[in-house]
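Please fill in the sequence for the structure shown.

STRUCTURE ENCODING:
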């Protein structure tokens, strides 16, 4: 099989779908890897390193897309890349289709077979390809929030951990999963007062044990969220329903109750965001205000630390990529329930139920098409 690695084109997206170690693994398994020149530059990987690992370097994106049987990326295809989609192509990348009906339609119209990192799910419920970027984004969310709480950056002028004689910042984390747990690690480490809100009481018990009472855990409901945000300096949105649109946990009217200059970081923005006031932003233009509350809603946060993110992501994706390359999509999906869960579009059909429900589309069972 020919595996193509194009350069990412999303705003400030400096990650890359495959590292040289992955190239070596694939070529030793008998596959060919083609890489667009400069694809790894943002992650400090040179064309020479790819070539030494066994890849062939091509000058442009069109060549990579047209020659590859399987394209591996990091982020969803941008409108400029829709022209490269075609019926015999397998696309392996983060898709987050629920809030992106235009991309979904492009995949369906082209007949491209797409496998989404974020919906590959193992039998134990784990989301192994979402986990590494959730870890990065969770830890980054507090760093970013601390930065924007500084007065020159538009915030309230609060030091997250405070100093003796002053109060630390109040950090409220909505969701106690991978993102929320990693956000809490950083916030607690910096000395903030941390509250984690989740609807899963067993998860709250786990977090209470992990932090030995060092965080406040609250059961999620409208009243608890509203009252917690009233006193919050930094709010981290960290909820996830795999493949589906994120629930809107923070209502528009709640924002008006918050302190001017407080900061909201919506890590769930890839799935539409969990604040009613959220809309996607970019690393070029990352923030906006609603009722004097600063919103940071960049949809590819881990791209700000591409070297760390690329290698962490490749550690997780490579085993699945190798299975897809060795067996082909159909055999891989038949043999692995996790990979079958990752398939979102197949031969012009929407085969992931949560995406179909989010966009009011017809859902087709993948098993019946294979």
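FILLED IN BY: designer on duty
SEQUENCE:
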């Amino acid at each position: 099989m020919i595996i193509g690695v194009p350069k990412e084109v999303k705003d400030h997206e400096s990650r890359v779908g495959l590292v040289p170690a992955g190239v070596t693994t694939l070529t030793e398994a008998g596959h060919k890897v083609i890489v667009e020149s400069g694809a790894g530059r943002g992650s400090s990987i040179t064309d020479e390193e790819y070539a030494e690992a066994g890849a062939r370097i091509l000058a442009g994106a069109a060549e990579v897309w047209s020659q590859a049987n399987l394209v591996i990326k990091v982020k969803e295809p941008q409108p400029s890349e829709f022209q490269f989609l075609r019926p015999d192509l397998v696309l392996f990348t983060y898709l987050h289709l629920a809030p992106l009906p235009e991309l979904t339609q492009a995949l369906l119209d082209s007949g491209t077979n797409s496998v989404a990192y974020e919906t590959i799910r193992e039998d134990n419920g784990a989301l192994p390809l979402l986990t590494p970027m959730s870890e990065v984004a969770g830890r980054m969310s507090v760093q970013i929030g601390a930065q924007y709480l500084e007065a020159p950056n538009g915030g309230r002028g609060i030091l997250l951990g405070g100093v003796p004689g002053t109060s630390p910042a109040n950090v409220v984390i909505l969701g106690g999963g991978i993102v929320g747990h990693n956000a809490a690690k950083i916030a607690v480490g910096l000395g903030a007062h941390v509250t984690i809100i989740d609807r899963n009481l067993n998860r709250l018990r786990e977090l209470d044990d992990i932090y030995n009472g060092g965080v406040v855990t609250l059961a999620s409901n409208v009243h608890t969220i509203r009252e917690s945000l009233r006193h919050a300096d930094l709010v981290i949105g960290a909820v996830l329903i795999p493949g589906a649109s994120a629930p809107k946990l923070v209502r528009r009217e709640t924002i008006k109750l918050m302190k001017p200059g407080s900061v909201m970081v919506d890590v769930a923005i890839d799935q539409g965001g969990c604040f009613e006031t959220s809309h996607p932003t970019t690393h070029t233009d990352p923030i906006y205000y609603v009722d004097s509350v600063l919103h940071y809603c960049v949809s590819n946060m881990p791209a700000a630390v591409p070297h760390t993110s690329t290698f962490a992501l490749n550690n997780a994706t490579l085993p699945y990529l190798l299975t897809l390359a060795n067996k082909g999509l159909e055999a891989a999906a038949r043999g692995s329930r996790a990979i079958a869960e990752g398939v979102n579009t197949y031969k012009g059909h929407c085969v992931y139920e949560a995406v179909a429900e989010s966009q009011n589309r017809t859902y087709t069972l993948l098993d019946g098409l294979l």
